[in-house]
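Subject: Sanity check before I submit

Could someone independently write out the structure tokens for this chain? I want to compare against mine line by line before I put it in a report. The sequence has 261 residues.
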Amino acid sequence: MPTYLDKILAAHREAARADRRDVGRLLADASRCAAPRGFTAALKARPGVAVIAEIKRRSPSKGPLAPDLEPALVAKAYAAGGAACLSVLTDAEFFGGSADDLAEARSAVDLPVLRKDFTVGTADVCDARLMGADAVLLIVAALAPGELGDLLGAARGLGLDALVEVHDEAEAEVALDAGAEVIGVNQRDLVTFEVDTQRAVRVAGSLPDHIVRVAESGVRHRDDVTRLADAGFDAVLVGEALVTAPDPGAALASLMGVEAS
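---
Independent answer below. Compare away.
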């Protein structure tokens, strides 16, 4: 029986095969975009644990989360709440997102923005830059090792940072071998979509000190942030707990242990 990940990747691979655009022209167009804002630098600049706050309309496993959210308003609330960066889902079929969501969020604030999507080819990297993203997500479980290295190179060639997502120590080794500098440990199993809140702590020990470490999924309370900070994480990526809150900015500030401005 196909898993969530199987279905999502199959759809994105098929879209990539059907894409007849010239990659050389896309690279040229993307290279002419204004300089990115510096996603990794923004994470490093924050004292304590930085928060990447996510704009996410729905989930394949849970259905609608905030289908009618206004990206610009949510982005402003996140900025006021103390976010270091934004993450915006752009997958339409499974997450209800769009390139417009990313563009609207980014235009509302001065924070760097991660394009959160299933990147499977160079055209996807170009599209991330063309839609205004400052960083791109690369998921080890979705890519062959050679693809990961190629896409990291394409991103860097366009000035984009890359958040390389792993789920265990073996994937972390693949990410490190490919030259990843920012590694996210997703506590959500992409096969079952269940969350294991101890996964990030277990995997953290396999990440060298020079790596910017990001914990993803399952972060809901201040205690979660504290536990991940103690495990050596530099940042957390939080989506569901924020977009479903009555006041996303206040929820974010609470996660950080501060008052919303």
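---
OP: Matches mine. For the report I'm noting this point. Residues 4-18 form the longest helix (15 residues).
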